[in-house]
Amino acid sequence: MKKEKNTQVNEESQEIERFNIIFRIQHVIMFTTFLLLAFTGWGLKYAELKDVSSWWIRIWGGPKTAGIIHRTAGITMLLDFAFHVIYVGYLLFTGRMKIRKETTVIPLPKDVVDVVHNFLYFIGIAKTKPKFGRFSYAQKFDYWAVFWGMFVIGISGLCLAFPVQASIFFPEWTTAWIWQLIAVMHSDEALLAIVFILFWHFYNEHLKPEVFPMSWVWLTGRISLKEMKQKHPLEYELMIKEKSE
Amino acid sequence: MVKRISILFCFLLLLPVFAHAEDISGCIVCHNVMAGKIDFNGKVIDLNVDAKRFETSVHGAFACTECHERFHENPHVPPDSQVTPEVERLSEEVALKAKADPVALAACSKCHNEEYRDVIDSVHGKNIVEEGKSDGALCLDCHGSAHYITKSTDKDSPVNKWKVVDTCGRCHGKEELAKKYGIEANVMKSYFESFHGKKHILGHKRAPTCVNCHGYHAIKSKDDPTSPVFGTNKIKTCGKCHKGANKKFVAAITHKEPGPIPHYAEKGLIILTISVIAFTVLHVLLEAYSDLRDVLFRRRKEVEHEEGKEYSG
Protein backbone atom coordinates (compact mmCIF):
# COMPACT_ATOMS: atom_id res chain seq x y z
CA MET A 1 0.00 0.00 0.00
CA LYS A 2 1.35 3.35 -0.87
CA LYS A 3 0.45 6.88 -0.19
CA GLU A 4 0.66 9.05 -3.26
CA LYS A 5 3.17 11.83 -2.69
CA ASN A 6 4.49 14.66 -4.75
CA THR A 7 8.16 14.12 -4.21
CA GLN A 8 11.15 15.19 -6.19
CA VAL A 9 13.22 12.14 -6.96
CA ASN A 10 16.39 13.55 -8.40
CA GLU A 11 19.02 13.05 -5.78
CA GLU A 12 19.95 9.77 -4.21
CA SER A 13 20.53 11.44 -0.87
CA GLN A 14 16.96 12.69 -0.87
CA GLU A 15 14.47 11.17 1.50
CA ILE A 16 10.83 10.44 1.00
CA GLU A 17 8.14 9.79 3.58
CA ARG A 18 7.47 6.09 4.03
CA PHE A 19 5.11 6.30 7.01
CA ASN A 20 3.13 9.41 7.88
CA ILE A 21 2.82 10.70 11.43
CA ILE A 22 -0.51 8.93 11.99
CA PHE A 23 0.99 5.55 11.15
CA ARG A 24 4.03 6.34 13.29
CA ILE A 25 1.86 7.17 16.30
CA GLN A 26 -0.09 3.94 15.79
CA HIS A 27 3.19 2.04 15.81
CA VAL A 28 4.43 3.73 18.99
CA ILE A 29 1.18 2.94 20.80
CA MET A 30 1.34 -0.61 19.47
CA PHE A 31 4.85 -1.39 20.73
CA THR A 32 4.43 0.45 24.03
CA THR A 33 1.29 -1.50 24.89
CA PHE A 34 2.86 -4.69 23.54
CA LEU A 35 5.83 -4.36 25.90
CA LEU A 36 3.60 -3.52 28.87
CA LEU A 37 1.37 -6.51 28.10
CA ALA A 38 4.32 -8.84 27.67
CA PHE A 39 6.03 -7.69 30.87
CA THR A 40 2.96 -7.85 33.10
CA GLY A 41 1.55 -11.00 31.50
CA TRP A 42 4.81 -12.91 31.80
CA GLY A 43 4.64 -12.88 35.60
CA LEU A 44 1.12 -14.31 35.58
CA LYS A 45 1.86 -16.96 32.94
CA TYR A 46 4.78 -18.31 34.94
CA ALA A 47 3.31 -17.70 38.40
CA GLU A 48 4.43 -21.18 39.45
CA LEU A 49 8.00 -19.85 39.55
CA LYS A 50 6.91 -18.35 42.82
CA ASP A 51 9.92 -16.31 43.90
CA VAL A 52 10.96 -14.92 40.52
CA SER A 53 7.41 -14.18 39.42
CA SER A 54 6.25 -12.48 42.58
CA TRP A 55 9.46 -10.40 42.58
CA TRP A 56 8.83 -9.47 38.97
CA ILE A 57 5.19 -8.62 39.61
CA ARG A 58 6.16 -6.46 42.59
CA ILE A 59 8.26 -4.37 40.19
CA TRP A 60 5.04 -3.66 38.33
CA GLY A 61 3.30 -2.53 41.50
CA GLY A 62 2.01 -5.87 42.78
CA PRO A 63 -0.55 -8.24 41.30
CA LYS A 64 -3.44 -5.81 41.46
CA THR A 65 -1.65 -2.91 39.80
CA ALA A 66 -0.02 -5.22 37.25
CA GLY A 67 -3.50 -6.47 36.39
CA ILE A 68 -4.78 -2.93 35.89
CA ILE A 69 -1.76 -2.10 33.70
CA HIS A 70 -2.34 -5.26 31.67
CA ARG A 71 -6.04 -4.57 31.08
CA THR A 72 -5.50 -0.89 30.29
CA ALA A 73 -2.69 -1.66 27.85
CA GLY A 74 -4.76 -4.40 26.25
CA ILE A 75 -7.75 -2.17 25.64
CA THR A 76 -5.50 0.63 24.37
CA MET A 77 -3.88 -1.79 21.93
CA LEU A 78 -7.26 -3.01 20.67
CA LEU A 79 -8.41 0.59 20.17
CA ASP A 80 -5.16 1.36 18.36
CA PHE A 81 -5.75 -1.66 16.13
CA ALA A 82 -9.36 -0.69 15.45
CA PHE A 83 -8.23 2.81 14.59
CA HIS A 84 -5.64 1.42 12.18
CA VAL A 85 -8.23 -0.67 10.35
CA ILE A 86 -10.62 2.28 10.12
CA TYR A 87 -7.83 4.62 9.02
CA VAL A 88 -6.60 2.28 6.26
CA GLY A 89 -10.21 1.79 5.20
CA TYR A 90 -10.62 5.54 5.02
CA LEU A 91 -7.43 5.94 2.93
CA LEU A 92 -8.60 3.25 0.53
CA PHE A 93 -12.13 4.63 0.34
CA THR A 94 -10.97 8.16 -0.47
CA GLY A 95 -8.46 6.87 -3.00
CA ARG A 96 -5.47 8.23 -1.10
CA MET A 97 -4.16 4.71 -0.91
CA LYS A 98 -4.36 2.35 -3.86
CA ILE A 99 -3.89 -1.37 -3.99
CA ARG A 100 -1.04 -2.16 -6.39
CA LYS A 101 1.00 -5.29 -6.57
CA GLU A 102 4.25 -3.34 -6.04
CA THR A 103 3.05 -1.49 -2.95
CA THR A 104 0.41 -3.58 -1.29
CA VAL A 105 0.84 -5.33 2.04
CA ILE A 106 -1.58 -8.05 0.91
CA PRO A 107 0.27 -11.37 0.47
CA LEU A 108 0.67 -12.36 -3.20
CA PRO A 109 2.00 -15.50 -4.91
CA LYS A 110 5.22 -13.60 -5.59
CA ASP A 111 5.89 -13.58 -1.84
CA VAL A 112 6.15 -17.36 -1.81
CA VAL A 113 8.58 -17.20 -4.74
CA ASP A 114 10.53 -14.53 -2.83
CA VAL A 115 10.81 -16.76 0.25
CA VAL A 116 12.31 -19.59 -1.81
CA HIS A 117 14.50 -17.16 -3.72
CA ASN A 118 15.73 -15.54 -0.51
CA PHE A 119 16.58 -18.90 1.06
CA LEU A 120 18.53 -19.78 -2.08
CA TYR A 121 20.36 -16.49 -1.74
CA PHE A 122 21.10 -17.17 1.94
CA ILE A 123 22.80 -20.45 1.20
CA GLY A 124 24.66 -19.02 -1.78
CA ILE A 125 22.84 -20.66 -4.72
CA ALA A 126 21.05 -17.56 -6.01
CA LYS A 127 23.47 -14.75 -6.76
CA THR A 128 21.10 -11.85 -6.12
CA LYS A 129 18.49 -11.02 -3.54
CA PRO A 130 14.84 -11.03 -4.54
CA LYS A 131 13.46 -7.64 -5.55
CA PHE A 132 10.86 -6.51 -3.06
CA GLY A 133 8.06 -4.02 -3.40
CA ARG A 134 7.05 -1.56 -0.69
CA PHE A 135 6.70 -4.47 1.71
CA SER A 136 8.94 -7.54 1.61
CA TYR A 137 7.40 -10.85 2.58
CA ALA A 138 9.13 -10.50 5.94
CA GLN A 139 7.38 -7.21 6.54
CA LYS A 140 4.06 -8.58 5.37
CA PHE A 141 4.49 -11.48 7.77
CA ASP A 142 5.22 -9.01 10.56
CA TYR A 143 2.15 -6.97 9.68
CA TRP A 144 -0.34 -9.82 9.44
CA ALA A 145 1.03 -11.46 12.57
CA VAL A 146 -0.45 -8.50 14.42
CA PHE A 147 -3.87 -9.23 12.91
CA TRP A 148 -3.64 -12.87 14.00
CA GLY A 149 -2.54 -11.76 17.46
CA MET A 150 -5.35 -9.23 17.74
CA PHE A 151 -7.88 -11.82 16.70
CA VAL A 152 -6.71 -14.65 18.96
CA ILE A 153 -5.14 -12.84 21.92
CA GLY A 154 -7.34 -9.75 21.80
CA ILE A 155 -10.66 -11.54 21.76
CA SER A 156 -9.63 -14.11 24.36
CA GLY A 157 -8.19 -11.29 26.48
CA LEU A 158 -11.47 -9.39 26.40
CA CYS A 159 -13.28 -12.54 27.51
CA LEU A 160 -10.86 -13.03 30.38
CA ALA A 161 -11.10 -9.40 31.45
CA PHE A 162 -14.91 -9.44 31.42
CA PRO A 163 -15.78 -13.08 32.14
CA VAL A 164 -19.33 -12.52 33.37
CA GLN A 165 -20.28 -10.43 30.35
CA ALA A 166 -18.47 -12.76 27.94
CA SER A 167 -20.30 -15.80 29.29
CA ILE A 168 -23.57 -14.38 27.99
CA PHE A 169 -22.34 -14.92 24.43
CA PHE A 170 -21.28 -18.53 24.87
CA PRO A 171 -23.85 -21.22 24.15
CA GLU A 172 -24.69 -23.60 26.97
CA TRP A 173 -22.88 -26.60 25.45
CA THR A 174 -19.53 -24.82 25.30
CA THR A 175 -19.36 -23.80 28.95
CA ALA A 176 -17.61 -26.96 30.11
CA TRP A 177 -14.47 -26.29 28.10
CA ILE A 178 -14.59 -22.81 26.55
CA TRP A 179 -12.77 -21.08 29.40
CA GLN A 180 -9.88 -23.46 29.37
CA LEU A 181 -9.67 -22.98 25.62
CA ILE A 182 -9.68 -19.20 26.01
CA ALA A 183 -7.00 -19.28 28.68
CA VAL A 184 -4.82 -21.56 26.54
CA MET A 185 -5.33 -19.38 23.46
CA HIS A 186 -4.43 -16.22 25.30
CA SER A 187 -1.37 -17.58 26.99
CA ASP A 188 0.09 -19.73 24.19
CA GLU A 189 -0.42 -17.18 21.44
CA ALA A 190 1.05 -14.46 23.65
CA LEU A 191 4.15 -16.58 24.02
CA LEU A 192 4.25 -17.03 20.25
CA ALA A 193 3.90 -13.28 19.73
CA ILE A 194 6.69 -12.49 22.16
CA VAL A 195 9.10 -15.05 20.71
CA PHE A 196 8.21 -13.97 17.17
CA ILE A 197 8.87 -10.30 17.93
CA LEU A 198 12.04 -11.18 19.77
CA PHE A 199 13.54 -13.08 16.81
CA TRP A 200 11.93 -11.77 13.66
CA HIS A 201 11.29 -8.14 14.36
CA PHE A 202 14.44 -7.63 16.42
CA TYR A 203 16.67 -9.14 13.79
CA ASN A 204 15.08 -7.39 10.85
CA GLU A 205 14.72 -3.95 12.37
CA HIS A 206 17.49 -3.84 14.95
CA LEU A 207 20.30 -6.36 14.54
CA LYS A 208 20.68 -6.54 10.77
CA PRO A 209 24.08 -5.03 9.86
CA GLU A 210 22.60 -2.31 7.66
CA VAL A 211 20.10 -1.10 10.26
CA PHE A 212 21.94 -1.68 13.55
CA PRO A 213 21.17 -0.45 16.20
CA MET A 214 17.74 0.17 14.69
CA SER A 215 15.90 1.33 11.64
CA TRP A 216 14.96 4.95 12.25
CA VAL A 217 11.90 4.87 10.02
CA TRP A 218 9.65 4.39 13.06
CA LEU A 219 10.74 7.79 14.36
CA THR A 220 11.41 9.91 11.27
CA GLY A 221 9.06 8.09 8.93
CA ARG A 222 11.56 8.84 6.16
CA ILE A 223 13.66 6.59 3.98
CA SER A 224 16.50 7.66 1.66
CA LEU A 225 16.10 6.99 -2.02
CA LYS A 226 19.31 4.97 -1.88
CA GLU A 227 17.83 2.69 0.77
CA MET A 228 14.55 2.51 -1.09
CA LYS A 229 16.32 1.43 -4.31
CA GLN A 230 18.17 -1.21 -2.35
CA LYS A 231 15.38 -2.62 -0.22
CA HIS A 232 12.22 -1.82 -2.15
CA PRO A 233 13.33 -1.71 -5.80
CA LEU A 234 9.91 -2.49 -7.27
CA GLU A 235 8.30 0.38 -5.38
CA TYR A 236 11.13 2.65 -6.46
CA GLU A 237 10.76 1.67 -10.10
CA LEU A 238 7.01 2.25 -9.94
CA MET A 239 7.58 5.67 -8.44
CA ILE A 240 10.07 6.64 -11.19
CA LYS A 241 7.69 5.37 -13.86
CA GLU A 242 4.82 7.41 -12.47
CA LYS A 243 7.00 10.50 -12.25
CA SER A 244 8.06 10.25 -15.87
CA GLU A 245 4.50 9.88 -17.08
CA MET B 1 -13.23 -12.31 114.97
CA VAL B 2 -14.98 -10.27 112.28
CA LYS B 3 -11.62 -8.99 111.17
CA ARG B 4 -10.28 -12.51 110.97
CA ILE B 5 -13.23 -13.66 108.91
CA SER B 6 -12.91 -10.76 106.52
CA ILE B 7 -9.20 -11.51 105.98
CA LEU B 8 -10.07 -15.11 105.33
CA PHE B 9 -12.81 -14.00 102.96
CA CYS B 10 -10.36 -11.85 101.03
CA PHE B 11 -7.99 -14.80 100.81
CA LEU B 12 -10.80 -16.97 99.50
CA LEU B 13 -11.48 -14.42 96.79
CA LEU B 14 -7.88 -14.65 95.69
CA LEU B 15 -7.83 -18.41 95.82
CA PRO B 16 -8.91 -19.05 92.19
CA VAL B 17 -6.08 -16.80 91.01
CA PHE B 18 -3.53 -18.74 93.00
CA ALA B 19 -4.98 -22.03 91.92
CA HIS B 20 -4.80 -21.00 88.27
CA ALA B 21 -1.26 -19.74 88.50
CA GLU B 22 -0.17 -22.84 90.37
CA ASP B 23 -1.91 -25.05 87.83
CA ILE B 24 0.06 -23.84 84.80
CA SER B 25 3.35 -23.45 86.54
CA GLY B 26 2.85 -26.75 88.24
CA CYS B 27 2.42 -28.68 84.97
CA ILE B 28 4.82 -26.64 82.92
CA VAL B 29 7.67 -27.09 85.37
CA CYS B 30 8.05 -30.61 84.04
CA HIS B 31 6.29 -30.42 80.69
CA ASN B 32 8.49 -27.57 79.46
CA VAL B 33 11.71 -29.55 79.68
CA MET B 34 10.77 -32.96 78.36
CA ALA B 35 13.06 -34.14 75.63
CA GLY B 36 12.11 -36.84 73.14
CA LYS B 37 8.81 -38.53 72.47
CA ILE B 38 7.02 -41.48 73.93
CA ASP B 39 5.02 -44.34 72.54
CA PHE B 40 1.44 -44.13 73.81
CA ASN B 41 -0.99 -46.84 72.70
CA GLY B 42 0.93 -47.17 69.45
CA LYS B 43 1.03 -43.43 68.78
CA VAL B 44 4.18 -41.38 69.09
CA ILE B 45 3.41 -38.37 71.21
CA ASP B 46 5.34 -35.39 72.41
CA LEU B 47 4.73 -34.53 76.04
CA ASN B 48 6.70 -31.33 75.92
CA VAL B 49 5.03 -27.91 75.68
CA ASP B 50 7.00 -24.87 74.65
CA ALA B 51 5.93 -22.54 77.46
CA LYS B 52 6.96 -19.37 75.60
CA ARG B 53 4.96 -20.23 72.49
CA PHE B 54 2.03 -21.41 74.57
CA GLU B 55 1.90 -18.13 76.48
CA THR B 56 1.85 -16.08 73.25
CA SER B 57 -0.84 -18.25 71.70
CA VAL B 58 -4.51 -17.23 71.85
CA HIS B 59 -5.05 -19.77 74.64
CA GLY B 60 -1.97 -18.73 76.59
CA ALA B 61 -3.96 -17.54 79.60
CA PHE B 62 -5.75 -20.88 80.08
CA ALA B 63 -5.02 -23.43 82.71
CA CYS B 64 -3.91 -26.80 81.34
CA THR B 65 -6.90 -28.42 82.97
CA GLU B 66 -9.37 -26.23 81.09
CA CYS B 67 -8.91 -28.70 78.26
CA HIS B 68 -7.15 -31.65 79.90
CA GLU B 69 -10.10 -32.06 82.23
CA ARG B 70 -9.26 -35.55 83.41
CA PHE B 71 -5.94 -34.45 84.86
CA HIS B 72 -7.36 -32.47 87.73
CA GLU B 73 -5.01 -33.91 90.32
CA ASN B 74 -1.51 -32.56 90.27
CA PRO B 75 1.05 -34.04 90.07
CA HIS B 76 0.16 -37.25 88.31
CA VAL B 77 -2.39 -39.55 89.72
CA PRO B 78 -4.40 -41.72 87.33
CA PRO B 79 -6.42 -39.25 85.23
CA ASP B 80 -9.97 -39.88 86.34
CA SER B 81 -11.41 -36.51 87.28
CA GLN B 82 -14.96 -35.63 86.52
CA VAL B 83 -15.40 -34.39 82.94
CA THR B 84 -18.11 -32.07 81.65
CA PRO B 85 -20.81 -34.46 80.31
CA GLU B 86 -21.02 -32.90 76.83
CA VAL B 87 -17.25 -32.97 76.48
CA GLU B 88 -17.20 -36.57 77.68
CA ARG B 89 -19.76 -37.60 75.06
CA LEU B 90 -18.01 -35.70 72.25
CA SER B 91 -14.64 -37.11 73.28
CA GLU B 92 -15.94 -40.62 72.60
CA GLU B 93 -17.05 -39.59 69.10
CA VAL B 94 -13.73 -38.08 68.15
CA ALA B 95 -11.51 -40.45 70.13
CA LEU B 96 -9.90 -41.98 67.05
CA LYS B 97 -8.55 -38.56 66.03
CA ALA B 98 -6.88 -37.93 69.38
CA LYS B 99 -3.27 -38.85 69.90
CA ALA B 100 -3.37 -39.05 73.66
CA ASP B 101 -6.20 -37.11 75.26
CA PRO B 102 -9.61 -37.25 73.52
CA VAL B 103 -11.10 -35.10 76.26
CA ALA B 104 -8.75 -32.26 75.40
CA LEU B 105 -9.67 -32.62 71.73
CA ALA B 106 -13.37 -32.45 72.59
CA ALA B 107 -12.87 -29.59 75.02
CA CYS B 108 -12.54 -27.08 72.15
CA SER B 109 -16.34 -27.30 71.98
CA LYS B 110 -16.69 -25.68 75.40
CA CYS B 111 -15.93 -22.29 73.85
CA HIS B 112 -16.14 -23.00 70.11
CA ASN B 113 -19.38 -24.91 70.23
CA GLU B 114 -20.89 -23.64 66.99
CA GLU B 115 -17.71 -24.22 65.01
CA TYR B 116 -17.35 -27.70 66.50
CA ARG B 117 -20.91 -28.62 65.50
CA ASP B 118 -20.22 -27.32 61.99
CA VAL B 119 -17.15 -29.52 61.75
CA ILE B 120 -18.94 -32.61 63.07
CA ASP B 121 -21.70 -32.05 60.49
CA SER B 122 -19.19 -31.38 57.70
CA VAL B 123 -17.87 -33.95 55.24
CA HIS B 124 -14.73 -34.09 57.37
CA GLY B 125 -16.56 -34.63 60.64
CA LYS B 126 -19.05 -37.14 59.27
CA ASN B 127 -16.23 -39.29 57.97
CA ILE B 128 -14.85 -39.46 61.49
CA VAL B 129 -18.00 -39.74 63.57
CA GLU B 130 -20.29 -41.67 61.23
CA GLU B 131 -17.82 -43.67 59.15
CA GLY B 132 -15.33 -44.16 61.96
CA LYS B 133 -12.35 -43.27 59.82
CA SER B 134 -9.38 -41.21 60.86
CA ASP B 135 -9.29 -39.35 57.52
CA GLY B 136 -11.09 -36.06 57.81
CA ALA B 137 -9.84 -32.93 59.43
CA LEU B 138 -10.67 -32.03 63.00
CA CYS B 139 -9.58 -28.83 64.79
CA LEU B 140 -5.90 -29.59 65.16
CA ASP B 141 -5.37 -30.96 61.65
CA CYS B 142 -5.83 -27.48 60.24
CA HIS B 143 -5.11 -25.16 63.16
CA GLY B 144 -2.06 -27.01 64.43
CA SER B 145 -1.36 -27.98 68.03
CA ALA B 146 -3.84 -26.45 70.45
CA HIS B 147 -0.93 -25.21 72.54
CA TYR B 148 0.30 -22.87 69.81
CA ILE B 149 -2.82 -21.68 68.01
CA THR B 150 -2.56 -18.08 66.90
CA LYS B 151 -5.12 -15.82 65.25
CA SER B 152 -6.11 -16.88 61.73
CA THR B 153 -4.68 -13.60 60.45
CA ASP B 154 -1.30 -14.23 62.10
CA LYS B 155 1.51 -14.80 59.62
CA ASP B 156 2.41 -18.17 61.15
CA SER B 157 -1.12 -19.53 61.35
CA PRO B 158 -1.57 -22.54 59.08
CA VAL B 159 -5.07 -21.32 58.21
CA ASN B 160 -4.14 -17.78 57.22
CA LYS B 161 -4.79 -16.62 53.65
CA TRP B 162 -1.29 -17.44 52.46
CA LYS B 163 -0.96 -20.85 54.12
CA VAL B 164 -4.43 -22.34 54.01
CA VAL B 165 -4.02 -23.72 50.47
CA ASP B 166 -0.97 -25.72 51.50
CA THR B 167 -2.77 -26.80 54.66
CA CYS B 168 -5.68 -28.22 52.64
CA GLY B 169 -3.14 -29.66 50.20
CA ARG B 170 -1.48 -31.74 52.89
CA CYS B 171 -4.38 -34.16 52.44
CA HIS B 172 -6.02 -33.08 49.19
CA GLY B 173 -2.73 -33.13 47.30
CA LYS B 174 -2.47 -36.86 47.99
CA GLU B 175 -3.45 -39.18 45.20
CA GLU B 176 -4.20 -42.10 47.54
CA LEU B 177 -6.77 -40.02 49.40
CA ALA B 178 -8.46 -38.97 46.14
CA LYS B 179 -8.58 -42.58 44.99
CA LYS B 180 -9.90 -43.83 48.33
CA TYR B 181 -12.84 -41.43 48.41
CA GLY B 182 -13.37 -40.99 44.66
CA ILE B 183 -12.71 -37.26 44.76
CA GLU B 184 -10.94 -35.07 42.20
CA ALA B 185 -7.21 -35.84 42.22
CA ASN B 186 -5.83 -32.74 40.58
CA VAL B 187 -7.47 -30.09 42.75
CA MET B 188 -4.16 -28.58 43.77
CA LYS B 189 -2.69 -28.62 40.26
CA SER B 190 -5.81 -27.19 38.65
CA TYR B 191 -6.04 -24.49 41.31
CA PHE B 192 -2.46 -23.37 40.82
CA GLU B 193 -2.95 -23.39 37.04
CA SER B 194 -6.12 -21.31 37.29
CA PHE B 195 -6.17 -17.54 37.30
CA HIS B 196 -7.37 -17.66 40.92
CA GLY B 197 -4.39 -19.76 41.97
CA LYS B 198 -1.86 -17.84 39.92
CA LYS B 199 -2.98 -14.54 41.39
CA HIS B 200 -2.86 -16.08 44.86
CA ILE B 201 0.73 -17.21 44.31
CA LEU B 202 1.67 -13.71 43.21
CA GLY B 203 0.16 -12.28 46.40
CA HIS B 204 -3.14 -10.88 45.17
CA LYS B 205 -5.12 -10.22 48.34
CA ARG B 206 -8.52 -10.75 46.73
CA ALA B 207 -7.63 -13.96 44.92
CA PRO B 208 -9.78 -16.71 46.41
CA THR B 209 -8.30 -19.70 48.23
CA CYS B 210 -9.99 -23.07 48.83
CA VAL B 211 -12.11 -21.75 51.70
CA ASN B 212 -13.59 -18.80 49.82
CA CYS B 213 -15.52 -21.16 47.54
CA HIS B 214 -15.79 -24.38 49.54
CA GLY B 215 -16.30 -23.00 53.04
CA TYR B 216 -14.27 -24.09 56.04
CA HIS B 217 -15.72 -25.55 59.26
CA ALA B 218 -18.99 -26.58 57.64
CA ILE B 219 -17.32 -27.80 54.44
CA LYS B 220 -19.45 -30.22 52.43
CA SER B 221 -18.87 -32.63 49.60
CA LYS B 222 -19.43 -31.02 46.19
CA ASP B 223 -22.23 -33.58 45.73
CA ASP B 224 -24.03 -32.40 48.87
CA PRO B 225 -26.91 -30.03 47.96
CA THR B 226 -25.91 -27.76 50.85
CA SER B 227 -22.38 -27.30 49.50
CA PRO B 228 -21.63 -23.79 48.20
CA VAL B 229 -20.15 -25.39 45.07
CA PHE B 230 -23.09 -27.72 44.40
CA GLY B 231 -25.01 -27.05 41.18
CA THR B 232 -26.71 -23.68 41.14
CA ASN B 233 -25.34 -22.76 44.60
CA LYS B 234 -22.26 -21.77 42.63
CA ILE B 235 -24.15 -18.78 41.22
CA LYS B 236 -24.32 -17.27 44.70
CA THR B 237 -20.81 -18.37 45.65
CA CYS B 238 -19.13 -17.02 42.49
CA GLY B 239 -21.35 -13.96 42.72
CA LYS B 240 -19.60 -12.95 45.95
CA CYS B 241 -16.79 -11.61 43.74
CA HIS B 242 -18.18 -11.77 40.20
CA LYS B 243 -21.23 -9.56 40.30
CA GLY B 244 -23.94 -10.81 37.96
CA ALA B 245 -22.59 -14.35 37.82
CA ASN B 246 -25.01 -16.59 35.94
CA LYS B 247 -25.43 -20.28 35.26
CA LYS B 248 -23.26 -20.25 32.15
CA PHE B 249 -20.54 -18.23 33.84
CA VAL B 250 -20.12 -20.44 36.91
CA ALA B 251 -19.31 -23.44 34.74
CA ALA B 252 -15.96 -21.76 34.10
CA ILE B 253 -14.49 -22.67 37.47
CA THR B 254 -13.99 -26.36 37.98
CA HIS B 255 -11.23 -28.71 39.15
CA LYS B 256 -12.14 -31.24 36.47
CA GLU B 257 -9.56 -32.24 33.87
CA PRO B 258 -10.04 -30.14 30.73
CA GLY B 259 -12.03 -31.96 28.06
CA PRO B 260 -10.68 -33.06 24.67
CA ILE B 261 -11.38 -29.76 22.91
CA PRO B 262 -9.05 -27.52 24.93
CA HIS B 263 -6.59 -30.40 25.06
CA TYR B 264 -6.32 -30.79 21.29
CA ALA B 265 -6.62 -27.04 20.73
CA GLU B 266 -3.61 -26.60 22.97
CA LYS B 267 -1.71 -29.30 21.07
CA GLY B 268 -2.62 -27.54 17.80
CA LEU B 269 -1.48 -24.17 19.13
CA ILE B 270 1.76 -25.71 20.38
CA ILE B 271 2.43 -27.19 16.92
CA LEU B 272 1.66 -23.81 15.34
CA THR B 273 3.92 -22.03 17.81
CA ILE B 274 6.78 -24.45 17.30
CA SER B 275 6.52 -24.32 13.49
CA VAL B 276 6.43 -20.54 13.40
CA ILE B 277 9.34 -20.30 15.81
CA ALA B 278 11.29 -22.93 13.85
CA PHE B 279 10.71 -21.07 10.57
CA THR B 280 11.54 -17.73 12.19
CA VAL B 281 14.72 -18.93 13.84
CA LEU B 282 15.91 -20.76 10.74
CA HIS B 283 15.20 -17.73 8.57
CA VAL B 284 16.90 -15.32 10.93
CA LEU B 285 19.97 -17.51 11.37
CA LEU B 286 20.40 -18.08 7.64
CA GLU B 287 19.82 -14.42 6.91
CA ALA B 288 22.31 -13.42 9.58
CA TYR B 289 24.83 -15.78 8.00
CA SER B 290 24.25 -14.31 4.54
CA ASP B 291 24.35 -10.75 5.86
CA LEU B 292 27.69 -11.37 7.56
CA ARG B 293 28.97 -13.11 4.43
CA ASP B 294 27.93 -10.15 2.30
CA VAL B 295 29.42 -7.59 4.65
CA LEU B 296 32.72 -9.47 4.96
CA PHE B 297 33.27 -10.94 1.49
CA ARG B 298 30.83 -9.57 -1.04
CA ARG B 299 31.00 -5.80 -1.09
CA ARG B 300 31.12 -6.01 -4.89
CA LYS B 301 27.84 -7.89 -5.15
CA GLU B 302 26.05 -5.18 -3.20
CA VAL B 303 27.17 -2.64 -5.77
CA GLU B 304 25.98 -4.85 -8.57
CA HIS B 305 22.63 -5.22 -6.90
CA GLU B 306 22.26 -1.50 -6.45
CA GLU B 307 22.73 -1.02 -10.17
CA GLY B 308 19.54 -2.92 -10.63
CA LYS B 309 20.65 -6.21 -12.13
CA GLU B 310 17.85 -8.60 -12.88
CA TYR B 311 17.30 -11.22 -10.25
CA SER B 312 17.32 -14.91 -10.81
CA GLY B 313 15.87 -17.59 -8.64
What value does the Rg of chain B take, in angstroms?
32 Å
- Amount of helix of chain A: 55-70%
Count of strand segments of chain B: 2
User: What's the Cα radius of gyration of chain A?
Assistant: 21 Å
Question: Keywords for this structure?
Answer:
heterodimer, A: about 240 residues, mainly alpha, Fumarate Reductase Cytochrome B subunit, two-stranded antiparallel sheet, two-stranded antiparallel ribbon, elongated, disordered N terminus, B: about 325 residues, 3 domains, 17 helices, about 55% helix, disordered C terminus
Brief synopsis:
The complex is a heterodimer of chains A (245) and B (313). Chain A has 245 residues and is mainly alpha-helical. Helices cover 67% and strands 4% of the residues of chain A.
Structure description:
The complex is a heterodimer of chains A (245) and B (313). Chain A is mostly helical and 245 residues long. Chain A has ten helices and four strands. Chain A has helices at 21-45, 50-59, 62-93, 109-122, 137-161, 163-167, 178-207, 217-220, 225-231, 233-244, and strands at 2-3, 15-17, 97-98, 222-224. With 313 residues, chain B is mainly alpha-helical. Chain B folds into three domains: 17-154, no CATH class; 161-257, no CATH class; 261-298. Chain B has 17 helices and two strands. In chain B, strands 1-2 form a two-stranded antiparallel sheet. The longest helix of chain B is centred in the last third of the chain and has 38 residues, at 260-297. The radius of gyration of chain B is 32 Å and the shape is elongated. The chains are: A mainly alpha (245), B mainly alpha (313).
What's the arrangement of secondary structure elements?
The complex is a heterodimer of chains A (245) and B (313).
Chain A: E1 2-3, E2 15-17, H1 21-45, H2 50-59, H3 62-93, E3 97-98, H4 109-122, H5 137-161, H6 163-167, H7 178-207, H8 217-220, E4 222-224, H9 225-231, H10 233-244
Antiparallel strand pairs in A: 1-3, 2-4
Helix pairs in contact in A: 1-2, 1-3, 3-5, 5-7, 9-10
Chain B: H1 2-31, E1 38-40, E2 43-45, H2 51-56, H3 64-67, H4 85-93, H5 102-107, H6 113-121, H7 123-129, H8 139-143, H9 164-172, H10 175-181, H11 187-193, H12 195-201, H13 210-214, H14 233-239, H15 247-250, H16 260-297, H17 299-306
Antiparallel strand pairs in B: 1-2
Helix pairs in contact in B: 6-7, 11-12, 16-17
